[in-house]
Design brief:
Layout (H helix, E strand, L loop, with lengths): L18 H6 L20 E7 L1 H4 L23 H8 L7 E6 L14 E2 L6 E2 L12 E5 L2 H4 L1 H7 L2 H4 L18 H5 L2 H28 L4 E5 L32 H21 L3 E3 L1 H4 L19 E6 L2 E4 L6 H19 L2
Parallel strand pairs: 1-2, 1-5, 5-6, 6-7
Antiparallel strand pairs: 3-4, 8-9
Length: 345
């Protein structure tokens, strides 16, 4: 049956504690003596990774598929799925990666709809098409682009508005960037945010239900976003070592807590939706508070206009608040730990 004709509104199934073990044909212990470690399955685990630029590890070079339209996804050869997969080498776990369809710019809806690539480079099929009947693990994260986080950034920065090739448009260009905190906390700006969060929640529910339908025996792991802004926002008033620009350039100081609140709200929506749909959640926001864009040499997030490792036509592309190699490794570490827990249940 084709993906176009399959039913897509099935109720999420209830999962037994050892569902993945049964699906893999492995005899995993349901009770482990104190001090012992459960044995993860020795059989390869058919796995599909999905997601947006935070899964693709935008900004890290080299990238995959440079000889095809998928090169415009800017999916790093060493993205966090690749790094996480390698960490299992000595743990008797083999992830048989059937596909990594993560792509920069992906909205949640691109899990079930084709994605149009930039500069007229073509379109990509819906990410759900990578799922197979024998897929046992579906891992990835989406939501930030559907929320419109790049539009929020441009609403709060005159400097970013000068860069039309950077993704996102201000929510209301007529409103000064210096007043973005008030804009998002009252009237039209607040209504826009509330609508976007409702859309993210509904779309993530759809994504997880579809993942459960097209890969009926798979465990689903939804991955959140690493923290961008620290609790102590005064850290953001100093450039990182070797940088001349502030991490958040000219975003007003009073808007930095707003950015953090928006991201925390997104994290909470993702966590709640995963729980409601019977999926696991990797709470990167809660685990990366010491590696934000404003944490200097310890930063796991590249500053908005800090040069990444990518260039386009000889011009360096900025990180635009994406994980650098340190951040990528933190993502891989926490995602791998969750995957191991899931396979050991």
């Amino acid at each position: 049956m084709s993906s176009a004709t399959r039913k897509t509104t099935t109720t999420p199934k209830t999962r037994r504690p050892a569902a993945v073990a049964l699906a893999l044909g492995s005899c995993l212990a349901l009770a482990v003596p104190a001090g012992a470690t459960a044995a993860a399955p020795a059989d390869p685990v058919p796995t599909v990774f999905f997601g947006d630029s935070y899964t693709a590890s935008f900004g890290i070079s080299p990238v995959n598929d440079t000889d095809s339209e998928r090169g415009w996804c800017f999916q790093a050869t060493e993205n966090y799925p690749a790094v996480a997969t390698r960490t299992f080498k000595d743990k008797n776990i083999t992830l048989q990666v059937q596909a990594d369809v993560s792509c920069g710019g992906a909205l949640v809806e691109h899990f079930w709809q084709e994605q149009e690539l930039p500069f007229g480079a073509g379109t990509l099929p819906a990410q759900q098409e990578a799922l197979k009947d024998d897929t046992q693990l579906v891992v990835g994260g989406m939501g930030g682009n559907t929320l419109g986080f790049t539009s929020i950034l441009k609403q709060c920065s005159d400097e970013l508005r000068k860069h039309p090739l950077l993704p996102g448009e201000p929510v209301d260009r007529d409103k000064p960037a210096a007043e973005c905190k008030d804009f998002f906390e009252s009237e039209d700006g607040k209504a826009w945010l509330d609508h976007k969060f409702d859309q993210v929640e509904a779309d993530l529910e759809q994504l997880l239900m579809r993942a459960g339908y097209f890969a009926p025996d798979a465990e689903r792991v939804l991955v959140g976003y690493p923290r961008l802004v620290p609790q102590d926002t005064t850290k953001c008033l100093k450039a990182a070592p070797g940088q001349s620009q502030l991490p958040f350039v000219d975003v007003p100081e009073d808007a930095l807590p707003l950015l953090d609140q928006v991201q925390k709200r997104l994290d909470d929506v993702m966590k709640k939706t995963a729980a409601n749909e019977g999926a696991d959640f990797v709470d990167l926001y809660a685990r990366t508070g010491g590696n934000t864009a404003c944490d200097g040499a310890a930063r796991g997030i590249g500053g908005l206009l800090e040069d990444s490792k990518l260039d386009l036509l000889g011009t360096k592309i900025p990180w635009y608040a994406h994980p650098n190699e340190k951040g990528r490794d933190l993502q891989a570490q926490h995602v791998a730990a969750t995957i191991e827990d899931v396979l050991n249940r």
